[in-house]
Write a structure and sequence with these properties.
single chain; 135 residues
Length: 135
């Protein structure tokens, strides 16, 4: 059952990547390809039971862009707390922030990312050379 839920979340995340909001598109133009301070971000990533808008796995920074559907501040707070308990740091912006003040948003993201230590993150471990015919 858990694998089915995980597959459904992954499928929904892929759908969300194909249909981003205008604010998400604008922010992704600055976050993609490690453009912002060399930080690599992923978009619509599944973390635990959540799908987050943007995540930098190396620092554990999560960026959420809240639109009109985010009217329940208590639910957002609980969600952020759950992600923080998993070792992530969450910052939130509104769609309006991103659309009207992208430079301010980018500055804030860089400030927060600079303060966060790198997590024990290795994107692809390199296997030892022994055993592959090389010594």
């Amino acid at each position: 059952m858990a694998r089915r839920i995980e597959a459904e979340k992954g499928s929904f995340a892929r759908q969300m990547r194909r249909q981003p909001t205008e604010a998400e598109k604008r922010l992704w133009r600055h976050l993609s390809s490690s453009q912002l301070g060399g930080h690599k971000f992923r978009r619509q990533s599944v973390i635990g039971n959540f799908i987050v808008d943007f995540c930098c796995p190396k620092t554990g920074l999560i960026i959420e862009v809240d639109g009109d559907t985010h009217v329940d501040e208590d639910a957002d707070r609980i969600r952020s707390q759950a992600l923080e308990q998993m070792g992530y740091f969450v910052i939130r912006f509104t769609n309006q922030d991103v659309i009207q003040n992208i430079q301010g948003v980018l500055t804030r993201i860089l400030e927060v990312a600079a303060r966060l230590p790198d997590r024990r993150y290795t994107p692809t471990p390199t296997p030892p050379l022994e055993g592959r015919g090389l010594e």
